[in-house]
Amino acid sequence: MLPWELRGYAPQISGIAQTNATVTVSHSGRVIYQKKVLPGPFIIDDLNQSVQGTLDVKVTEEDGRVNNFQVSAASTPFLTRQGQVRYKLAAGQPRTSMSHQTENETFFSNEVSWGMLSNTSLYGGLLISGDDYHSAAMGIGQNMLWLGALSFDVTWASSQFDTQQDERGLSYRFNYSKQVDATNSTISLAAYRFSDRHFHSYANYLDHKYNDNDAQYEKQTISLSVGQPITPLNLNLYANLLHQTWWNADASTTANITAGFNVDIGNWRDISISTSFNTTHYEDKDRDNQIYLSISLPFGNGGRVGYDMQNSSHSTTHRMSWNDTLDERNSWGMSTGLQSDRPDNGAQVSGNYQHLSSAGEWDISGTYAANDYSSVSSSWSGSFTATQYGAAFHRRSSTNEPRLMVSTDGVADIPVQGNLDYTNHFGIAVVPLISSYQPSTVAVNMNDLPDGVTVADNVIKETWIEGAIGYKSLASRSGKDVNLIIRNASGQFPPLGADIRQEDSGISVGMVGEEGHAWLSGVAENQQFTVIWGDSQRCSIHLPEHMEDTANRLILPCH
């Protein structure tokens, strides 16, 4: 199992939404993540660890307003065990816009890491795209144990554009990452990159060549991200900073600080208070600052009433809200508020409803703003997994954690992993987000099985590697429950403990109790069974063609 310092780092993206908004995350012009968020601060923490570089974040409000900012997704490269080699190969055609059309240019890339010493690895890679773009990288990664992990690498790139000569340049990068167990810090990451004037990343090369725009040439990037819980105060702090300079554009700085904690005041328990500050500054331009404050109090059974205030460079918003949880799968909320820069002071009312199903999360929301706009939107967030054993929609699985496909012999609506995941019409369920490199247990909820359904070996305990798709088949039956008294031709009962098996499959479905009593679950009408005891002694029973009332005992002859 890789220690924390040696794993990839996927960034948290935090921001503030003023309405029921859509957050879109793009990398090199390609959308990699999209999610509906409620008014107020949001945090996205389930991006794939393979994402690296600068990410563009767009927050689209219901009234059409758009807020854009950037975050850095730096990472400390994984280290490799001494003497081992890890590699990754990729080939394809690039896509330079949000459409599905690819360019008529083929690229090939590879990455290699070699465990030179027990805590030291050398790594590098190549990227070749046609005759016009070539790049190579070489670096070293060092695990410093309790001091954390760091890496340093150099990338060389050569770019050929239609109207210019070859442009060749170098880019230098330093990353540092540490998990502080003593203070329970969630993550601390610092990254620095410097690129000379004629260095082009592959994304920058494609943007310049195919989109016919004035691409920005990165000069220097500094990023810092820190998360820190303060347990005695029930307080969580998160901060990040991104500073970028360009060879042909103004420098920019984006910073965010978020704090949230829970307190008890008198008879009021679990009062939630959160605050957030965001700022974006472009050189020679005014700062865009946003301040957010929220207070939420529990009310009734599962409900919460809240107030939040948001102040930006252009407006101030006040909002009262009510949110309620119907059960573990359904929740809803309503809010009303005022906004200073909108017609009629931005008087508006909003509502939302969320439903979590085995096939993903469903969301519907709507807003009415007086003399301004009205909107209704709906979204689904989930995943789809297909293997040679079957296919199923399931809850979102966007990280690289393992997932487990469970087959129940075509029996539908069997609850797996509590009541979060159910088998579909074909008897397939997928359990996402299973822990990697450590034992994990997935169990059928036997207390919530459909009537007439029986599942054998209902607990799965395995260990999966990162990114694995596991598969397990659970012997399941669906039918009726019957109460039997079994007698042979002479009126005697089979001995206590005799095994009852399906005649066609040989699967054991029960055993004989005292005085020939037996209880069978998940059986079908007109089905045949074999009763076995002793040294291969046996007889057969045959269920009737019609069993309307299975509560009454059936007396069956055993031939």
Automatic annotation (TrEMBL):
GO terms for cellular component: cell outer membrane. Residues 486-543 form the PapC-like C-terminal domain. GO terms for biological process: pilus assembly. Pfam families: PapC_C, Usher. Signal peptide: none annotated. GO terms for molecular function: fimbrial usher porin activity. InterPro entries: Fimb_usher, FimD_plug_dom, PapC-like_C, PapC-like_C_sf. PANTHER family: OUTER MEMBRANE USHER PROTEIN, OUTER MEMBRANE USHER PROTEIN YQIG-RELATED. This is Outer membrane protein. It comes from Escherichia coli.
